[in-house]
Amino acid sequence: MHPQLATDLAQLPSLLAETGRRATAFLDGLGERPVIPSRALAATGPATGPAAAYPLPERGEGLAAALAEFGQRWEPRLSSSAGPRYFGFVTGGVTPAALAGDWLTATVDQNSNSSMDPAGQQLERETVGWLREAFGLGAAHHGAFVSGATMSNTVGLAIAREWLGERLGVSPAEDGVGALGRVRVLSGSAHSSIAKGLSILGLGRTALTPVATLADREAVDPSALEQALRAVDGPCVVVANAGTVNTVDFDDLRAIAALRERYDFWLHVDAAFGAFAAFSPEHEQLVAGLDSADSVCVDLHKWLNVPYDSAVQFTRRPDLQARVFRNAAAYLGPLGEDPDLVHLTPENSHRLRALAAWFTLRAYGRDGHREIVERCVAGARALGEAVAAEPVLRLLAPVRLNVVCFTLADQSGGGEAVAERLTALAAALGEEAFLTPTVHAGHPALRAAFSNWRTTSADVERTVGALVEAARKV
Q1: Which residues contact 285 (CB under 8 A, 6 or more apart)?
Q2: In this structure, are residues 413 and 403 in contact, taking their beta carbons and an 8 Å threshold?
Q3: pTM for the full model?
Q4: Most exposed residue of 140, 169, 234, 428, measured as fewest CB within 10 angstroms of its CB?
Q5: Alpha-carbon gap, residue 292 to 232, rounded angstroms
């Protein structure tokens, strides 16, 4: 054994204790450290980036030296993305139980894909069952863990692609996507990952056909969708949304599912974070009809507050899923009636992602995660009310769940000028709170997404104060 490896192994308990102290200090400081450190923003270009100045060491100095250098060079640049005022994208934090689960995931280092070494796979299936129940899905839905919403959507679309082949008497998995001919994928406000998935799958970004939405909404107009279905020659795919990016709008899933009585289509629901409305009695009606989907995407490193990367996908057709992703090799074992996970996702290997989710669900249950969801919703409503009351800001959509979408009241100079002022506003807020830019209904805007378990009313008040002060200056 290399002498430095042997030394670190001998000193592992004390080294892990030091790692734990550093982790605890980082977490303890999340509420006060800069949300986006200016030091990180100052070192972004190739000329200023750290990689060129620090080549790969020829001789390592061991874990203690690596910890010290990380603390000096990298930790100060890291954002507080796990903290209570990181409202950019839709980013959760890590609950205490999920953190413990993730540490143990690395410790036990399981590849949970095979029944020949079954414990990890069994734990994942139990966790998927808990999630299926939490989201109101029936026993007909089968699921597996993947890396994130993009991969979950892509897996769902891959199964849909095979379903199209089944309808046409071919198998894209065997014969190639060309056997399908032209494919139509209809959606009102599809997330960008849908087009990316279609590109990956060889269906092409142009397969995505936009359908009109309801007036002043991001939800699809069911009448427009029926008209689009009527115009399609043969079976197609419908991507419904349970929680759009800008305004967390929800398609009427029951109305869409009812259209299958007259039209032949696969229904995929992108419920990346909107599925968590099922945890709240006040909002669970938003996902009514989710169980009728043929495939469902849910992103867990958002509102479940487990570490990156973690998502789950569900489908009613695991047989088609296995047809797409099966991996024929003597050492992997047969498909069987209940295929190993290696036959259900693009990865032959993946870490035991389910363990962090298992821990947080076991530790806090439905009630604990309901409280997180409802506190985030309350925070979004409070910020929305503050924006609506501030003369220099303008709320662009009702706060339906956990996202606040707004712009500047002064739209002088046109879209480009407004976008520049919004960029300046976001930069001025950067150390207090992080918001991301978007465009909604043609208006440059900012959006704040509440999904972190640490966010409290005090964080909302602090964000409001910083936002109003910066907006008035801009």
Answers
A1: none
A2: no
A3: 0.95
A4: 169
A5: 22
